[in-house]
Write a structure and sequence with these properties.
Elements: H1 12-24, H2 28-37, E1 48-49, E2 57-58, H3 59-73, E3 74-77, E4 80-83, E5 93-101, E6 105-113, E7 118-125, E8 129-134, E9 143-146, E10 152-155, E11 162-167, E12 172-178
Parallel strand pairs: 4-8
Antiparallel strand pairs: 1-2, 3-4, 5-6, 6-7, 7-12, 8-11, 9-12, 10-11
Helix pairs in contact: 1-2, 1-3
Length: 179
Amino acid sequence: MHNPGADWAGIPFGRVFHAQCAAYLGQGELVEEIVNSMADRVYPSLHMSLGPDGRIFNFDGNGAFPDIINRSIAFSLNGTLDLLRSIPPGWEEGSIRGILARGQIRIDELTWDRPAGTVRLKLTSGKDQTVTLRMPTFEAIESDNPVNRDVCIQESPLGENSREVTLSAGKKATIELGF
């Protein structure tokens, strides 16, 4: 029975759903706060426990944590790929590999260094398409460099934080952005 006075955010599945929403909404500080608050519930295998005592295995957190991380770093929808959308402040630099995004896009590798203001992105598209890459609205893209010749990068009507990238089916595209 639902108890309206219960602190559902204290229960792991409540916390992970809250973090997923924060990642979607671009609230990196909240993502970091929630992820860090759940560190005492992670087994050495990186699976999660329902409580800090480690006695009950928790499926919700195990499925949601990769989504929270992926959604914070790279989020795709309707022909766009948002980079570092809700990156937590403590994640100054890092990389991810092998993420599947909507629109038949595989992120082979995404490496970022926020103090240096750089992003390096390796993509493979399952079809010929133009995708809009977007940085957070407060990060204007100052430079773009298509590392391979098959990639075409153009200004985007969406603003200084966006670029339109033409991808060819099955060909790896490497792009460097400065912000």
